[in-house]
TrEMBL record:
Name of the protein described by the UniProt record: Phosphotransferase
Biological or metabolic pathway of the protein: Carbohydrate degradation; glycolysis; D-glyceraldehyde 3-phosphate and glycerone phosphate from D-glucose: step 1/4
Keywords in alphabetical order: ATP-binding, Glycolysis, Kinase, Nucleotide-binding, Transferase
Transferase is among the record's keywords: yes
Family, similarity comment: Belongs to the hexokinase family.
GO molecular function terms noted in the UniProt entry: hexokinase activity
Organism domain of life: Eukaryota
Organism: Sporothrix bragantina
Underlying gene: GLK1
Amino acid sequence: MALATETKRLVAQFEYTDEDVNIGVKEFLRQLDEGLSKNGSSMSQIPTYVTAVPNGTEKGLYLAVDLGGTNLRVCSVRLNGDNSFNLTYSKAAIPKALMVAKTSRELFQFIAQNIETFIKTHHYDHYEHHIRRRETMSNPEGYRDEAILRLGFTFSFPVRQVGINKGYLIRWTKGFDIPDAIGKDVCALLQDEINLLHLPVKVAALVNDTVGTLMARSYTSPGKTGALLGAIFGTGTNGAYIEKLSSIKKELEGVYDDSTGEMVINTEWGSFDNQLNVLPTTTFDVKLDLESVNPGIQMFEKRVSGMFLGEILRVVLVSLLQDKSVQLFHDDNSSHNDWKSTTTIAPESGIFKKWGLDSAIMSVAALDNTPDLGTLRQELDSQLDVYSPSMEDAQAFKAIACAIGRRAARLSAVAVGGIVLQSGKLTDPAYADQPIDVGVDGSLVEHYPHFRTMMHDALKAIDGIGEAGAERIRIGIAKDGSGVGAALIALVAQRMEEKQPTAIESMQQVRSELSLKNLGAIDEAVVPDAAV
Ligand code: GLC
């Protein structure tokens, strides 16, 4: 009984009402605008220099590397030009030691080695062709780069991007901590290691996973208006959306094509409200934050994403286990247990270890609607070394886990709803009756039961969206964003390279613009080789 009462009290702490959602959206819009106006605000609002989304007709073979939170993925993508693609990929777990290595070289070396293995396995022709070319490099034409594979580098951390393949790491998130890399151009770090292995690969584009998701969604399901937002709800959470250039008031230092009047912005909403003006904060959130590698940062992410939900639950369970008046995972004798056994929790249970509770078990809890919660109880046994948990234990576990999951989904609606309102599309007659398309990816949105439904329910409660507006928000899974999306941006980068005038063309253009024809021919000999 004491356990049930205490559970109720805890569940109430994770309640996030419709009113809270609306207060959250207001503040989200304020901080979003602040991020568009100046650098150094809590939501970074990073300009990506990507000014158009694809329409599905793009073609070509590209490589993509995705350094996300948990895994490294290397893939090649053949874009077929008809909204379809073929993808070959390999995946490797990122060794924990590399996430907190002394120098970034160890991490980037690991990535380059994985690229090498991938090319040798899946694109040996390119590899061999390139090696042969190197051997014949002495020919008068010198080395040409036909065999070079262009690579889109999905680097899902906050980066100050200054060009399509140049960006300086602002800070690590999701448990990574290699101080040496901060402030460095991550594309150059990767290219250096690729060059050391003599691979025929050019890091052509730097992509956040959310931008990739937005691109992939636009490529595979083009509507009349294209996708508005790409969002990740996985290990971390973040979103990238299309913003009007006229609303970006801070200085744009890189080169970009302004013909569309729009640019994709990487919000880095994981850091929304680091100052905790409106985010719900329980004592458990405070404890988790204090014990994280980056206290005070990514405060929204720490309440929403998969990496943290299991840990919040674990911290709550530990507090319950410490309270001797509440008998969690403990009973007096077998007569109190409907399985006629006695419950014990092993000292080596993940519940007693930091990060020891994998969020995946929260999905099991949410899904188990059997009368005796048998599936969840088995899982508690196999995953968390709780021997013979009672029904009351499982009920408490399920109620608290669901409350944490539901709060996360409703908080997600704050971000998605905020972006929809910011776009103005719901009230713009040009988009009347058009769906507002949102591409999402990540373990949470894919596997946590009813995450999207809970998000949708909260969207309906937002002033300015309502039932009718929420109906128009189409949230669809966009898998492979970091592969296909990165490939698409590598393609954009290649087009930009091709479009870029050679030095001679530029000088001729300048000459004609200035009507300096009478100055005579430009001496082509003075044009440096590298620029041609
Ligand atoms: C973290 C990163 C962000 C990324 C997100 C999802 O929030 O800072 O760049 O997009 O995780 O992977």
